[in-house]
Amino acid sequence: MATTLNSYSRTFTIGGDLPVSRLGYGAMRITGQGIWGPPKDHDESIRVLKRAVELGVNFIDTADSYGPHVSEELIAEALHPYPTGLVIATKGGLERTGPDQWPVNGHPDHLRKVLDGSLKRLKLEQIDLYQLHRIDPKVPAELTFEFLQEAQQTGKVKHIGLSEVSVDDIKDAQQYFEVVSVQNMYSVDNRKWEPVLEYCKEQDIAFIPWFPLNAGNISAQEKLRTIAAKHGATIHQVALNWLLNHADNILLIPGTSSVEHLEENMKTTDIQLSEDDIKELDGISPA
Question: Is rRNA processing found in the keyword set (predicted)?
Answer without folding.
Answer: no
